Amino acid sequence: MFILPTVKIAFRGLRVNKMRSGLTMLGIIIGVAAVITMLAVGEGAREYLAKSIASLGSNLILVIPGSTTSGGARMGTGNTNTLVASDAQALEGESAIDAAAPIVRGVGQVVFQDRNWNTAIMGTTGSYEIIRDWPVSEGRFINRQDIDGMTKDCLIGTTVVQELFGDEDPLGRIIRINQVPFTVVGVLQKKGQSLMGQDQDDIIITPLSTAMSRLFGKTSVNAIMVKGKSDSLMNHAVEQVKTLLRQRHRIPEGGDDDFSVMNLSEMLAAAETQTKIMTMLLGAVASVSLLVGGIGIMNIMLVSVTERTREIGIRMAVGARERDILLQFLVEAVVLSLTGGVIGILLGVGFSTAISELSRFQTSVSLFSVVLSFAFSAAVGIFFGFYPARKAAGMDPISALRYE
Amino acid sequence: MIEARDLVKEYVIGDTVLRALDGVNVHIGRGEFAAIMGPSGSGKSTFMNIAGCLDRPTSGSYILDGTPVETLSRDALAGIRNRMLGFVFQGFNLLPRTTALENVELPMYYSGQEEDMEEKAYAALKSVGLAGRERHFSSQLSGGQQQRVAIARALINDPSVILADEPTGNLDSRTSVEIMDIFTKLNAEKGITIVLVTHEPDIAGFAMRQIHFRDGKIVSDERTK
Prior knowledge:
The complex is a heterodimer of chains A (404) and B (225). Chain A has 404 residues and is of the alpha+beta class. Chain A is built from 13 helices and twelve strands. Chain A has helices spanning 3-16, 18-56, 85-91, 127-132, 144-149, 158-165, 208-216, 234-248, 264-307, 309-317, 322-358, 367-393, 397-402; strands at 60-65, 69-70, 73-74, 97-112, 115-124, 136-139, 153-156, 174-177, 180-188, 203-207, 223-228, 259-263. In chain A, helix 1 (3-16) packs across helix 11 (322-358), helix 2 (18-56) packs antiparallel against helix 12 and helix 9 packs antiparallel against helix 11. The radius of gyration of chain A is 33 Å and the shape is elongated. Chain B has one domain (2-223): 3-Layer(aba) Sandwich (Rossmann fold). In chain B, helix 3 (100-110) packs across helix 4, helix 3 runs parallel beside helix 5 and helix 4 (117-127) crosses helix 5 (143-155). Chain B has 225 residues and is α/β, with parallel strands linked by helices. Chain B is built from seven helices and ten strands. The two termini of chain B are 19 Å apart. Chain B is 33% helix and 29% strand. Chain A binds chain B through residues 1-2, 4-6, 8-9, 12, 16, 310-311, 313-324, 397-398, 401, and chain B through 49, 52, 54-55, 74-75, 78-79, 81-83, 87, 89, 93-98, 102, 106-107, 109-112, 114, 153, 157.
């Protein structure tokens, strides 16, 4: 009953000075819009990363041949032939390791009837399904018999299905990969983009043995993907991989590894933490502009109080108490900052949407950032409005009335 | 209604003490219409400030409707100004860029009224002859009209006393008479006590009693009607 008329008076005061109110609000609008946009960019990056991590699979260790240093000379990784399929098999026997899948990669031209498509070809074992958490949506995954029998069965990703088969059912059809005929036994579930922005569904998976001998003519594998038993056992699993491979490769004590082990899950988690820090940093920088906007409010309110000294005198003469005047100016400041806050939120949401529309940057406006900005702008209004309001309320009615 | 006992008001300006009121004793009864006269610097404005509960005496006491006012808090004084007193100033003192209606409604905001504010303000404006000008901004009104708005504002909370500080000082003589007629009518019909500061004898002639100030003292106090 007491606050409503005060709010009315405050709105009237602001309406009377539209230009000034607008400019004062601009500071808050820009501040809030900046906070919202920056947090949205950061949050978008974090979500993107989290999604990528989820699509990669959990507790992942990647083993690739070669090492970063070899006999003093630095060597590139991945281009030596030290890893073999039986390494993966041996790794699966370790206590901290859930599964290990050897992988050979290449590209190939795939033909079905009159259509053809160039895609990634990967040879692996049934363990890959568990490791990547990537089951088939139709048909079956590659199994033991495929590997042992070196069958010409294959799985295809959804992009390949689209390019080669369109609406047709691919199961049981024969496709030719680099002239070799393969039977499609399964379609992989859609996986989406990888962290690097590659289409993970543009792929054909064949039995490891078939790929090695019939497609690529290889005796070693490009990589071994290992899944640890659990999150807490990851360091242990990495140790086991290293120990076992050194033993199998007969590397003497003190000799350099002929392979590299990367804990992918850990790397991604670190990246996620970094993104979080970046988000907070962006938000912090943006909130500085909010603070500056708040100082703008205080500045204008101080000018306004001085300029309206006579008005304050009149109000006091007709019976305004100290708290009426205090509340009037405080409410004016809060109305300014909150209106600015709301406009800023809308603008920030608009900017964020525009950013994700116009660039490949993914943004995500969180409810948290909206609530935070709103609360923060209210706090800015109260904090920076209080001193000018206090000053107005403490005026002497006579000198205020006589003020020219 | 208004009673001053040994009222003293001193202002300290630098090293010197200026005694604006030097022992004023006066009693203005309910329903009286008193004019306060005197040259500038005679203390009449200081007296009006104290009478209007805008200022406090240095010593002595001021009793408004039986209440010794000098003991009250700032907020209590604000309450008295709001409900018991109505002010009319020489410079009108209307809120700029605000309509006549909103100016008149102003005291009601501070008395916590919420119902019928607009109707009451309409009625008050009509009673001072400003029907049809409710939505005009104060800057769009003539001096006489602005002073009528100020009177309507002073009347809105049904005060027992109206304090008018040179209400005709900025008006031409014809408008002055119109304004004074309103005061006379308010005094006669509603029994509102009116204290009017003026230095124009014609204007003072509307009052029933003329009190002359000089050097912070009352030098004459006579009933003229």
